[in-house]
Design goal:
Blueprint: H1 8-33, H2 43-48, H3 55-64, H4 69-86, H5 88-100, E1 102-105, E2 108-111, H6 115-121, H7 125-160, H8 166-172, H9 177-190, H10 192-206, H11 216-224, H12 237-247, E3 258-261, E4 273-278, E5 282-286, H13 293-310, H14 318-321, H15 327-337, H16 343-349, H17 356-383, H18 393-404, H19 422-444, H20 452-462, H21 470-478, H22 485-495
């Protein structure tokens, strides 16, 4: 039984403590992923904010919601915090292992986190297979037992919160899982032939094998796109980003609340990331530039997060500043990321004479990703209702293999799952971006990214933080709601850019 509903003063105290908790957690993740420390030390943070993560607190907030969206966000945070507190040692151990484990391949020692990078950069297919098998072996032996135990602890914790399972809990949070799943099933069906034909062409060109013969160790190479390296050098990444933002009226180098971490560190994450430690006062954009199309995409994506956080109105409460609909921030991140495959941007910023082939290839990778995440959503809906999660390994392989025509490793059946049904945020964000981009082009022209008026509109929308959902923003700006079909139309448009497509 929960106690009395929290008072207004108690809710304000909870908000303040939650804000401090998330700031401390974000800084800890930053220090770990930026290579400053091997360990991920979460326990002390949970101890300092023990009042946030009790079962009683979570249940009391749930009973007080009564249709109030801000309270529902606090309830979701409290539930996630309760489960996170129970599995913090699992996360600490998994983080430490990810930073310190090494595989030996052909006499060379390679860090676990760098294996995917090595696979992507390796031109020799036989060696790619060895690297992938080493990655899976380390994951199966060291990480999966931790992930399985954490999943089982989480199942019990959900029942203690009064829900049948994790799926049921997120329905109570207002996630429209089945509605989105239905759209994703329709997307998979309607783009099946398009995917098979376009992905087959690109695999033959980029990897040297048809889709029917491609293996999972070929996919990282597929995304790496080494043939475009000369057009996307590492030394031009940051200047291109700074110039693109300047065209929109944003002076990246002059933003005192945005810190650029560009120092090379051995154990730094090879992929760019953004850490909103204090929103909007201290936002870190972390990069270790290596160049190549995929690296440019990652930098521009994370800069979208950084600008969203850095321009957020400082007076917003925590549930509108740090919580809320994460598809909003992911949508802004995708908007900047996809500048890198926008034909008008490529002509203007990188002097591409005819960017049609690159635009078409980028459309194929977007189609791949959206089909993958659609299958992930269908899998996670089943996983989070399963009494025995160990029985879901084959279902993971089946669903993702059917969507992508390449069989994944069952090793990833838990490691490929983000908490909080984050898969829904990515799916909705891709659709949000596609529809927002159509709007910006219609209002400001094909070179909307050079218009100060477009930048002003974006900064105004960024200032809202996550006060509104992605659907609400889109409805206010364009009069429409999120539709997955917009991604399919974006893909078809991109494929039309190339004569060969």
């Amino acid at each position: 039984m929960a106690g009395p509903a929290p008072t207004s003063s108690q809710l304000d105290a909870f908000r303040e403590s939650a804000d401090r908790f998330m700031a401390e957690m974000m800084e800890e993740y930053y220090l770990h992923l930026a290579g400053h420390k091997d360990t991920l030390d979460l326990e002390a943070i949970y101890e300092r904010h023990a009042e946030l993560t009790t079962q009683e607190q979570a249940v009391a907030l749930g009973e007080a919601v009564d249709g109030d969206r801000r309270l529902r966000e606090l309830w979701r945070f409290a539930c996630d915090g309760y489960m996170g507190n129970l599995t913090k040692q699992h996360e600490e151990r998994a983080g430490e292992l990810s930073a310190t484990l090494e595989a030996e391949v052909d006499g060379e020692k390679i860090g676990y986190r760098m294996l995917r990078v090595e696979i992507a950069n390796e031109p020799d297919r036989a060696r790619r297979q060895k690297l992938e098998e080493a990655r899976c072996a380390l994951g199966a032996e060291h990480l999966n037992p931790i992930l399985l135990d954490a999943a089982q602890v989480g199942q019990q914790a959900v029942r203690e919160l009064g829900a049948r399972n994790y799926y049921d809990l997120y329905l109570r949070f207002g996630f429209r899982l089945e509605e989105l799943a239905a759209q994703c099933r329709a997307f998979l069906d309607s783009t099946e032939r398009l995917f098979e034909e376009s992905a087959d062409r690109l695999f033959r060109t980029r990897v040297g094998v048809p889709l029917a013969e491609a293996k999972r160790w070929d996919t990282a190479r597929f995304f790496r796109a080494p043939e475009w390296d000369d057009r996307f050098p590492s030394e031009q990444m940051l200047p291109a980003l700074q110039t693109s933002l300047a065209d929109l009226g944003v002076d990246l180098s002059g933003q005192e609340n945005v810190e650029l971490d560009i120092e090379q560190r051995e154990k730094k994450s090879p992929r760019a990331f953004c850490a909103g430690i204090e929103i909007p006062e201290r936002v870190l954009l972390v990069i270790q530039p290596k160049g190549g199309l995929d690296d440019w995409r990652a930098l521009f994506h994370e800069s979208g997060h950084a600008e969203h956080f850095a321009n957020t109105e400082p007076g917003l409460p925590v549930e509108e500043k740090r919580l809320g609909d994460r598809a909003v921030s992911e949508g802004w991140a995708f908007l900047l990321e996809h500048l890198v495959d926008d034909p008008a941007w490529l002509r203007r910023r990188l002097d591409f004479g005819d960017p049609g082939d690159l635009v078409a290839e980028s459309a194929v990778t977007l189609l791949w990703l959206f089909r993958r995440y659609s299958a992930k959503l269908l899998y996670e809906i089943e996983l989070h209702q399963a009494d025995d999660v160990t029985a879901m390994k084959s279902r993971y392989v089946e669903l993702l293999g059917d969507a992508l025509k390449i069989e994944p490793s069952e090793t990833d059946w838990l490691g490929d799952v983000d908490g909080g049904f984050y898969v829904t945020e990515y799916l909705r964000a891709w659709a949000f971006e596609a529809q927002m981009r159509f709007h910006l082009r219609e209002r400001f022209g094909s070179e909307w990214f050079t218009k100060r008026e477009a930048g002003s509109q974006l900064r105004e929308l960024w200032s809202l933080g996550q006060k509104q959902t992605a659907d609400e923003i889109l409805r206010d700006v364009t009069g429409s709601e999120i539709e997955v079909e917009a991604v399919a139309e974006r893909v078809r448009e991109g494929l039309r850019s190339s004569v060969s497509a």
